[in-house]
Amino acid sequence: MMQETGGLLHASVVFLLTAVLMVPLAKRLKLGAVLGYLLGGVLIGPSVLGLISQPDSISQLSELGVVMLMFIIGLELSPRRLWVMRRAVFGAGLSQVLLTGLVLGIIAWQGFGQGWKAAVIIGFGLALSSTAMGLQLLAERKEMTSPHGRQAFAILLFQDIAAIPLIAMVPALGAAQANSGTGGVQLLQMVASIGLVVIGGRYLLRPVFRIVAKTGLQEVSTATALLVVMGTAYLMEWAHVSMALGAFLAGMLLADSEYRHELESQIEPFKGLLLGLFFIGVGMSADLSLLLGHPVLIIGLSLLLLALKLPLLALVGRQIGQLDGMSALKLGLLLAAGGEFAFVLFGLARDNALFDRELHSILVLTITLSMALTPLILLALSQILTQAATIRPVPPEYHEVTDNQPRAVIVGMGRMGQIVARVLRAQRIPFVAFETEVDTISITRKIDNIAIFYGDPLRPGVLRSAGAEQAEFFIVATDNPDTNLHITQAIRARYPHMKVVSRARNRQHVHKLWDLGAMPVRETFHSSLEMCRRVMQGLGLKEEQIEARLHRFREHDEQLLMEQHKVYDDEAALFQSARQARAELETLFEADHIEKAPKVLQQEANTERDNKH
Fold first, then answer.
1. How many helices (H) and strands (E) does the chain have?
2. Residues 179/120, Cβ–Cβ less than 8 Å
3. Which residue in 25, 109, 204, 231 has its CB near the most CB atoms, within 10 A?
């Protein structure tokens, strides 16, 4: 036990040290984080320093990074959005996989003398691209919302879905299980596991998250989010289905949930670390002795893979994705390398006697080298790729992928927050609302059908997942003055460009919000003035008199509030200011009455004369 603990601790320290040293160095050299992780893995792997002697021992753990990435992608895509994107996903994605798979398969069959079964697995396995690397490179280059970024997302999404039938197809083609009679059992396991994920995601997870949210314990919420992702991955692995696909399904079923942004903020830190571990694991698995023994073969195969996939991807991007030439080139460069699902597919092919071990090692090293070459090629062509691309209309379905660009963020969906939300929604102004009271969220979603989510806005991950950085206004409407102050302070520090409108309990609260640079709105001021209006109407005052007096009072009070802001922390000066203001207001109303009295008497006399006539 002590040896196992020491080994785990040793591996953890080595991985973290590699990430801390190699990634900043790679970023400084403008090579990108992905290449930093890959080179770090090669360095600590058995081929160089040998700090980690058994790379396969961390393969399952490293795959969790891809699993969490797919879960977050699922959270961004509800079934409704996926249907709207069907042309981008199932049109361009299906065309790319079929076209690339057939071309590469024919070359493996005719050009390299592989049997047709092995050629099918090689062709379609190499047709898949790396979701982890593609999205990471897009995020680093800030191109996720570009036309080629959206198209890359759609193609990668289809490839991840297509990995399932490909993985299921391998045992059927293989000789190892041809006569074992286990095919029907595996099919039953696959259907049962996917059914459990769909039913559980739709009917069980929301009640569970509601119960956890009511505890108010952050660590329990984090544990629940991790349990959903890792539990789904475990279930899918038991059924011999892609773990990543199960996580994607679970995320997609929770995409319309009120806990969507909370879940994403909980998973995001683990996803980043585990994705880094995945790339380190890929680098560790590289057999440098094979590369040194057959350098021409391995490098030639890697370059051939990139040279074949790039024009086919660009063709699909231009003809089906409606991209211009430069954007199609960027799409091809991003997705030309092999992907992580090919490792799984080729491993299964080896276990089912479709490949020998040498062919499997050559293919794995070819994919690894293609992944390492991609950031270098992008860096070498950076000047060409920065040229202005032809502006074409973006297909409407791409907007559905990244639609969380609110112009306003509302925190607190009580009485004030709900009114603000209803007014914004009536004007079709995009906004996102957050609340921590579970019952309020449920009632608001049922009655008003407002996009309200569970989440603590003081946590940066929650706001980031909702796209709050692009918002113009941040509306703080909770009924707790201290909470409003803390949120306002955090938002002003985090997003200094954003305008903050904050609910104020009293005058002292207004002064503190002003100090923070917010625009306070007094929660009872305007309603109290409306009550005064009703009372004066009942007392028989005319509408113009009521309006004039309320206007005078409002101006006087706002001016007083601004004057008191200079001394609001001096209690004696504040009381003296209030007493003087009261006397001034009485004098103003008296003068107003004296000034207007003759006019009122004259109006009454004229009215009486008109009545006589």
1. 29, 6
2. no
3. 109
SS (H, E, C) 348-411: HHHHCCCCCHHHHHHHHHHHHHHHHHHHHHHHHCHHHHCCCCCCCCCCHHHHCCCCCCCCEEEE
Supply 6's token pair: 């020491």
How far CA 555 is from CA of 233, 448, 537, 548, 583, in Å, comes to 63, 36, 21, 11, 15
Give the up-direction half-sphere exposure of residue 457: CA atoms within 13 A in the CB hemisphere: 31
Indicate the DSSP class of residue 31: -
- Nearest-angstrom CA–CA distance, 255 and 78: 5
d(CA 346, CA 118) in angstroms, rounded, equals 10
> Tokens in use for 325?
């030439």
Residue in the structure block whose two tokens are 């004369």: 609
d(CA 407, CA 430): 6
Amino acid at 106: I
Residue 424: exposure state from Cβ atoms within 10 A (0-12, 13-18, ≥19):
buried
Q: What is the DSSP letter of 58?
A: G
Beta bridge partners of 408: 431, 473
Report the C-alpha gap between 434 and 161 in whole angstroms.
Answer: 32
Q: What is the pLDDT of residues 175-234, one digit of tens each?
A: 544 444 555 676 677 777 777 877 877 778 778 888 887 777 777 878 888 888 888 888
Cα atoms in the 13 Å half-sphere on the side-chain side of 135: 21
Q: Angle between the 147-173 and 325-335 helix axes, to the nearest 10 degrees? A: 40
Kindly report the three-state secondary structure assignment for every residue of 542-567: CHHHHHHHHHHHHHHHHHHHHHHCCC
Indicate the burial class of 579 (C-beta count within 10 angstroms; 0-12, 13-18, 19 or more): exposed
Q: Return d(Cα 295, Cα 376) in angstroms, integer.
A: 19
Identify the DSSP state of 241: S
Q: Which amino acid is at 342?
A: A
Token pair 């950085």 in the structure block, residue:
469
Q: Indicate the SS3 state at residue 437.
A: coil
Task: Fill in the DSSP letter of residue 506.
Answer: S
Ramachandran angles phi, psi of 39, nearest 5°? -65, -40
Digit-coded pLDDT (tens) for 261-309: 778 877 877 877 887 888 888 788 777 888 888 888 888 999 999 999 9
Q: Is the CB of residue 338 less than 8 Å from the CB of residue 126? A: yes
Secondary structure of residue 434 in the 3-state scheme: strand
Angle between helices 147-173 and 94-106 (to 10 degrees): 50
**Residue owning tokens 């007094």:** 522
CA distance 143 to 36: 20
* Sign (positive or negative) of CA dihedral 176, 182, 184, 187: negative
The per-residue pLDDT for 176 is: 47
Residues 6+ apart with CB under 8 A from 162: 93, 94, 97, 124, 128
How many whole angstroms separate alpha carbon 190 and alpha carbon 430?
A: 40
CB atoms within 10 A of CB 375: 24
| Contacts for 608 with CB less than 8 Å, ≥ 6 apart | none
Helix (H, G, I), strand (E, B), or coil: what is residue 301?
Answer: helix
Q: Which two tokens stand for residue 128?
A: 């898949």
- CA–CA separation, 393 and 406 (whole Å): 22
- Please answer whether residues 404 and 467 qualify as being in contact, where contact means their C-beta atoms are separated by less than 8 angstroms: yes
Percent of the chain at pLDDT > 70 equals 86
Separation of CA 321 from chain center: 23
